[in-house]
Amino acid sequence: MGRIVSNFFISMDGVVERPDQWHFGYFDDEMGEVVGSGMASTRAILMGRTLYDEWSQYWPDQGDEDFGGVINPMPKYVLAHEPFEARWQNTTVLSGVDDAAVAEQVRALKERTADGEVTMSGSATTVRWLIAQGLLDELALLVHPVAVATGQRLFEGTGTVPLELTESRALASGVLLVRYAPVYS
């Protein structure tokens, strides 16, 4: 069965919102290698509706250079409360009458991607939902040595979420790569 891995740039105080405001000063070749290796096993992208709306307005017009060449042809799956017509190439909308129906579609997606990972990025709300449904396999966090103080945090209003550390290392920039697996009871 495939795995769902969520990747985040995150501040020391847990903020994941607007990394464009605080992340780029820490991005270097070493971090690029970490991000690139994470994409190497990616077979599909999973995202929430808000991220889809943002990315589908930008990436299709960027051509095949850099990340556009990766994201545009790749299969994309969007979790949405209501069905909608997706116009970005290779996009499938996963929606249903309730959480259980959508979760079943995500489980089927994991089964179809048995040879790789479904990468999920950019939405703390979607990560929280995936964890609540027992569907997230790994959180891959690049923890930046900065306190942002304002913005959405990864775990807001979730209660306790037990995690098991599976990898950690410090990058030369002071950013920490930490990987956690949610512990489902």
From TrEMBL:
Pfam families: RibD_C. One of its GO terms (biological process) is riboflavin biosynthetic process. It comes from the Bacteria. InterPro entries: RibDG_C, Riboflavin_Biosynth_HTPR. Signal peptide: none annotated. Residues 4-177 form the Bacterial bifunctional deaminase-reductase C-terminal domain. GO terms for molecular function: 5-amino-6-(5-phosphoribosylamino)uracil reductase activity. This is Dihydrofolate reductase family protein.
